């Protein structure tokens, strides 16, 4: 089944490598990898094909990474089904590192 992750994190060195390493540990091929870095926030969208237990295990591991603020997971979705990556300069963007409403 196809799984799509959207990861929001602080823009720090080697973030993409640490995220990719988690998928590599499970011997998964990444079907889609999209990274947007704006100011101090990085948003990564990754699509992989794997079973449900592995998908949830990876979800938990991603949350444990340093600098990761949020991880969204969608199942059985084509690329981009979670939604397009937002531009942090748009007025509707919620800064994950700032105060929450």
TrEMBL record:
Superkingdom field: Bacteria
Name this protein carries in UniProt: Acetolactate synthase small subunit
Region (Disordered), start-end ranges: 78-101
Native organism: Edaphobacter modestus
